[in-house]
Amino acid sequence: MIKAYGDSVSGNCYKVQMVLNILKIEHQWIEMSIINGDTQAVAYLAKNPTGKIPLIELDDGRVLSESNAIMGYLSSGSALIPNDEFSKAKMYQWLFFEQYSHEPYIAVARYIQLYLGLPEARLTEYYSLHAKGYKALSVMESGLTKQPFLCGEQFSLADIALYAYTHVAHQGGFELVDYPHIRAWLTRITQIPGFVAMRV
Predict the structure, then answer these.
(1) Which residue segments constitute the domains of the chain, with CATH numbers given?
(2) What is the C-alpha to C-alpha distance for residues 70 and 98, in angstroms, rounded to an integer?
(3) Where is each GST N-terminal domain found (predicted)?
(4) Which of 130, 146, 165, 172 is the most exposed place for a label (fewest CB within 10 A)?
């Protein structure tokens, strides 16, 4: 049985939870606390020297880290990855966008507000993240104006990856009132069979 290590409040870990539940993959979820230092324990560092989560461990002892890599592995051959080569490439485009243009701003602002409680020393950084975070949301809004999901008609890993931090963007000070297509998309995702809510 796959062992999945993660913090249920983390968006990156939530992505893996979503895939596991949607695809009904038998697994053991091992809850970790970033704040309590679980990821820096000697036993965990032996599995993942980066000290990051999520991580999955296979029956034969092999481990895989990085949320989008884990999602890709778990979803191989499933409907979460488009068969059409162009649509598949668009999915990867959105996955890279999530890691480089979305998560570094929206997730980090959320971390500063939710986990750290907006300390004075990080307020300048916090507010500076908003411009680029809103730019990422505008790109998503544009992409969703004429289609139900990011890659078109098909719900894919791109939607899971970007749902993770977008649906809790308010916890980083982002307002979605001016993004009606994103809000409708968020609702559609909650209706996907196997959807599981984030523990917040």
Answers:
(1) 2-75 (3.40.30.10), 85-190 (1.20.1050.10)
(2) 15
(3) 1-82
(4) 146
Strand order in the sheet with 63-65: 27-31, 2-6, 55-57, 63-65
Cα distance between residue 7 and residue 29, in whole Å: 10
Instruction: Please report which confidence band the pLDDT of residue 129 belongs to, taking 50, 70 and 90 as the band edges.
Output: very high
pLDDT digits 0-9 by tens, 57-93: 999 999 999 999 999 999 999 999 999 999 999 999 9
d(CA 156, CA 56) in angstroms, rounded, equals 20
Question: How far is the C-alpha of 112 from the C-alpha of 19, rounded, in Å?
Answer: 27
Q: 130: which 2 tokens?
A: 């908003």
CA distance 115 to 41: 20
pLDDT digits (tens, 9 = 90+) for 162-183: 999 999 999 999 999 999 999 9
Going by the DSSP 8-state scheme, the letter that residue 66 receives in this structure is: S
What does the alpha-carbon distance between residue 154 and residue 122 come to, in Å, rounded to a whole number?
Answer: 39
Question: Which tokens is 33 given?
Answer: 């606390």
